[in-house]
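[Meeting: bench + compute handoff]

Bench side (C.D.) handed over the final construct sequence. Compute side (W.E.) agreed to return the predicted structure before the next meeting so the bench team could plan truncations. Sequence as handed over:
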Amino acid sequence: MILIYRLHPVDTTRTKPFYNKNKALRTASMTFGISFWLRNLAITARQFSANFEGGAIMNRMMFWLLANEQRMLMWANRRPARPVVNAWLGGWLGAVTHMGGATFTLVTALLCAILAPEPWQSAGWQCAAAVAISHIPVAIVKRNFRRLRPYQALPHVHTCRKPLCDSSFPSGHTTAIFAWLTPWLLIDAALLALLLPVALMIGLSVAWSRMYLGLHYPSDVAAGALLGSLTSVLVSAFWSFN
């Protein structure tokens, strides 16, 4: 049996609209894809530009802070021209700096905790606990964040006879004195107006003495004051709940 296939000519009048419709869809899809890609590229470029500008601004800010910190340090470390003022200031800051030591803070806190009546007895225990606890993060940060002390890193910085050689950040003396001072301020609200000026004078004097002796930068003492105060507030809050 012979099969005969009959070839019909293609009717272009019927296929052309379908072909044109598919071509239009492909063109629209390609145009949309290109526009979407260009839009994402523009957003990425803007984000990169913003991040680059933000990084540049951050670098300028850090440079400004470091430059001004050195100016503050040199101001706090300077020696007055008048011998009388120099002797008085050196004597006061050289003596008050020892109030931030572990010996003074822990011994006085324990004496009040053992011998003083309430509420000073509770304040003494809180002082001892806050000073001890606050030195844990100080020791951890000093071991992992090595920062030269000002007298080691900068020329023309005055220092004491036997300066410390461990890491400068944060200031352990400033941490201890603010951890020691805060419970006395929280123990009785009626005495706050009387105790606050004394506490500020002692705390700021210890912080200034660390820069006066060339042992710490302003950021060291600021971090120490914040750490000591925060630790003491948390200890006092925990104490009040028990």
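W.E. noted at the follow-up: The two ends are 108 Å apart (CA to CA). C.D. will use this when planning the next construct.
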